[in-house]
Amino acid sequence: MAKFDGIRMQELISVEDPDKDGGITLVFQGDRYLHIKIKDGKLETSSVPE
To answer: Euclidean distance between the first and final Cα of the chain, in Å?
Structure first.
């Protein structure tokens, strides 16, 4: 789960539902984001910074 180390133990600031891509974006302190969407029936995630 190293992909999510950047947001681990960070405070959740806000939730964008739906976001510009039709998914959900979780915004954490320190300008960290987790983008979640469903693609072909599966969850797809990306985090910034990764």
So the answer is: 11
| pLDDT tens digits for range 1-50 | 577 777 888 899 999 988 888 899 999 998 899 999 999 999 999 888 76
Q: Give the whole-angstrom CA distance, residue 28 versus residue 33.
A: 6
Give whole-number Cα distances, 5 to 8, 15, 22, 40, 50, in Å: 5, 19, 25, 26, 8
CA distance 32 to 35: 10
Q: Are strands 42-48 and 12-16 parallel, antiparallel or unpaired?
A: unpaired
Other beta carbons within 10 Å of 11: 9
Nearest to 30 by CA among 45, 8, 15, 46: 8
